[in-house]
Write a structure and sequence with these properties.
Blueprint lengths: L4 H7 L2 H16 L4 E4 H9 L6 E5 L7 H6 L3 E6 L4 E6 L3 E7 L1 E4 L8 E4 L2 H5 L10 E3 L8 E2 L4 H7 L9 H4 L2 H13 L5 H12 L8 H12 L4 H11 L2 H4 L10 H16 L7 H8 L5 H10 L3 H22 L6 H10 L2 H10 L3 H11 L1 H6 L4 H6 L9 H13 L6 H8 L16 H12 L9 H4 L15 H8 L6 H8 L10 H11 L1
Parallel strand pairs: 2-5
Antiparallel strand pairs: 1-2, 1-8, 3-4, 4-5, 6-7, 8-9
Helix pairs in contact: 8-11, 10-15, 13-14, 13-18, 14-16, 16-18, 17-22, 24-27, 24-28
Bound molecules: adenosine-5'-triphosphate (ATP).
Adenosine-5'-triphosphate binds next to helix 3 and helix 8.
Length: 519
């Protein structure tokens, strides 16, 4: 049995991995079989970035809403017909959890008749072979790939293939989806699929598209990495006016959208992961009337996304106001404000700020001030034994960074004056070497951490100062103190020097000595 769990874990971000475990646990506790399906499986196999997680459960996921909320997930919306939950899992992981179902289309233009189904039956209602795969997350078969339409081969061949001849007639939104995937992956439609696509286009099947599908596809545009390219293709294919009658590429704020994607990339490189989707929708519809934009908004299934888009300008104004006021009177205060602000708002304001002063502050936050962050006076700090091993180190490093930002530590004298009172007392001199068992015990005790005691965070990782430390790129210099021998390393030398003595009892002490020798 091919085991894709390893590949899955390798390809998912840590937050996505936690998301998979969470959904798996919630479904399992409710007695429902659960599978990772759709685009997530496709992207795991193809190597493209995994943007969201689609789960299919055998049962009704709408009953699991409370469990998800208790676990810290946000329910963005629900679809009662397909029994789908649109959730954001902790760590901003976008996910859909839907019920395994059969969709039976009896008449063109009429919604399908939906009934519960097995997973394999569910895969039969999918759009393209590459999206009709599932990965079991259930005990006994976890990691088993179900691929009844040989989607893996089409991924290999880089082809989009519908599952049957009626795919575009049954659900014309698949025409829009075909254009989107072809543009995103640069995968052509397989020959017969292309012929069906052309015929469907010629026969104007698109006019039978369901309203729910329109809203769903508009939302999907917001998650694209290159939405401008997709919307241009939609216009060329005639799909854009289907999504909204007055929508054209001329209504897009093209420079704004390009700048948004560039700034997002810069933020990603600095370790931030803002969700650009509300801002993408803002720029895509920038020149539509308020009424037209509001009509589009109403159709989006995720209500939280629709609201974030509606409120984005107001929230940006609030942040700009705060950045112009006392709260951001100094660089250090501005740093704190921008570090604690929602990253989505910082992203949006970075692109739209009209006041020069506000724009400059955001620019400094991303560039100049980060260079200051790299210039912590590490030699002086190490000299005073202020190293990452100290529990107070993060706070001290942060304070130094703030003072440096505000230009308050200009000379070495000023620096030492600030640091000296914070230095820990020098460590006591090492005890004189003892002979015999006692020496072994002392050496071993110095080497072996007490059982069950975890390394403190400060010991485990170098600390980057600044409130946005987690988001900052690791500064090479800030690693240095950790690499230097710390006072606690001294007794290890004593251990090596202690005369060897047999300990036939195989006690903890003798095992520790072996470990010490290996090192
Ligand atoms: P991505 O999220 O990367 O754009 P995706 O394949 O996950 O791609 P979604 O729109 O999230 O796309 O849909 C999830 C899955 O649901 C798809 O992979 C597909 O299997 C199925 N699906 C979505 N829309 C349709 C449709 N109109 N007809 C058939 N199956 C669909």
């Amino acid at each position: 049995m091919a085991d894709y769990i390893y590949t899955m874990e390798l390809r998912l971000t840590p937050n996505q991995q936690k998301g998979v475990t969470l959904v798996q646990d919630i479904a399992r506790a409710a007695g429902m079989n659960v599978y990772l399906t759709g685009g997530a499986v496709r992207d795991i196999i193809s190597g493209f970035a995994i943007r969201d997680l689609d789960f299919t459960v055998q049962g009704n996921p709408l009953k699991l809403q409370k469990d998800f909320e208790r676990a810290g997930a946000i329910i963005g919306g629900t679809d009662d017909d397909t029994k789908t939950l649109y959730v954001t899992l902790p760590g901003s992981v976008r996910a859909e959890v839907s019920s395994a179902r059969i969709e039976r289309y009896e008449k063109t233009g009429k919604p399908p008749i939906i009934s519960p189904a097995t997973l394999i039956e569910d895969l039969r209602r999918r759009d393209f072979t590459v999206n009709a795969m599932a990965l079991s997350l259930n005990p006994g078969s976890r990691g088993l790939l179900m691929d009844p339409y040989n989607g893996a081969a089409d991924i290999e061949a880089k082809l989009l293939r519908v599952l049957h001849n009626y795919a575009f007639v049954e659900d014309p939104s698949r025409l829009i989806r075909a254009s989107r995937f072809a543009a995103r992956f640069h995968w052509p439609l397989e020959e017969r699929t292309q012929a069906r696509y052309d015929a469907a286009k010629e026969n104007n099947y698109i006019e039978y598209i369901a309203n729910a599908a329109i809203g769903y596809e508009i939302e999907q545009l917001a998650y694209e990495d290159d939405p401008l390219n997709i919307i241009r293709i939609y216009e060329k294919e005639g799909w854009l006016k289907v999504l909204a009658p007055h929508w054209t590429t001329a209504k897009v704020d093209t420079p704004g959208l390009s700048q948004l994607m560039k700034t997002r990339q810069q933020m990603n490189e600095l370790g931030y992961a803002p969700d650009p989707s509300p801002a993408v929708l803002h720029f895509l519809t920038a020149k539509l009337s308020d009424k037209e934009a509001s009509d589009i908004r109403k159709q989006i299934p995720r209500r939280d996304l629709a609201e974030a888009w509606r409120d984005i300008e107001d929230h940006a104004k609030d942040l700009a106001k705060r950045l112009s006021g006392k709260e951001a009177a100094t660089p250090s205060r501005t740093w704190k404000l921008l570090s604690s602000a929602r990253q989505e708002m910082v992203l949006f304001l970075a692109v739209t700020a009209r006041q020069q002063a506000v724009a400059q502050k955001i620019k400094n936050f991303f560039t100049k001030w980060r260079q200051v962050q790299q210039k912590l006076p590490l030699p002086e700090m190490t000299e005073l034994l202020i190293t990452p091993q100290l529990p107070e180190y993060p706070k001290i490093a942060d304070d130094v960074f703030m003072l440096l930002l505000d230009g308050k530590l200009r000379s070495r004298t000023e620096l030492l004056k600030f640091l000296k009172p914070l230095a820990p007392p020098p460590p006591p001199p090492p005890p004189p070497p003892r002979r015999g068992r006692g020496a072994k015990a002392v050496a071993a005790a110095a080497l072996v951490p007490p059982v069950g005691k975890k390394k403190s965070k400060a010991e485990a990782a170098p600390v980057i100062p600044g409130s946005a430390a987690k988001a900052a790129s690791p500064a090479k210099d800030s690693n240095k103190p950790a690499a230097r021998p710390s006072p606690s390393a001294k007794p290890a030398k004593a251990a090596k020097k202690a005369p060897p003595k047999k300990n036939s009892a195989g006690s903890k002490t003798s095992r520790s000595m072996k470990t010490a020798k290996k090192h």
